[in-house]
Write a structure and sequence with these properties.
By secondary structure, the chain is mainly α. The protein has six helices and no strands. It has one domain. It is about 80% helix and about 0% strand. α1 packs parallel to α5. The longest helix is centred in the N-terminal third of the chain and has 33 residues. It starts with a helix and ends with a helix.
Length: about 130
């Protein structure tokens, strides 16, 4: 696999990881509010709840694979090329948040996303 592809996949997996983490924590919060028992309160209850969330496990897996790809790609690419591509993660998280969580993204945020995309296009073309 090419180093550039490794970096691009790493960025995409990192964004997906954030969506999984948000989903898992949202489900955990809903479950804790539903149960509303003292057994689920405190640090131990929180830790046990986190361990039981599939989405949080998926976050961890995506994060580890993304990190491995990042390290492998970065060995062969200039940091000045690779690191600015991390900003594409902001774009992906914004889009995925709007799709999966129905988050409202106002015009200023979309404008910022467009500016980030222009920067990524300029860097990717170099």
């Amino acid at each position: 696999m090419s180093p550039k592809l490794m970096i691009w996949i790493s960025v995409a997996l990192s964004a997906l990881a954030q969506i999984c983490l948000k989903r898992g924590l949202t489900k955990l919060r809903a479950q804790r509010e539903e149960n509303d028992s003292r057994a689920n309160s405190g640090l131990l209850g929180l830790v046990l709840g986190v361990v039981r969330q599939e989405s949080i496990w998926l976050w961890g897996i995506c994060f580890v694979v993304a990190m491995a790809l990042w390290l492998a790609g970065l060995q062969k690419l200039d940091l000045s090329y690779a690191y600015p591509l991390v900003s594409l993660g902001y774009v992906l998280v914004t889009m995925l948040s709007a799709i999966f969580f129905r988050e409202r993204v106002d015009g200023n945020r979309w404008l910022a996303v467009g500016v980030i995309c222009m920067g990524v296009i300029l860097i990717a073309g170099s």
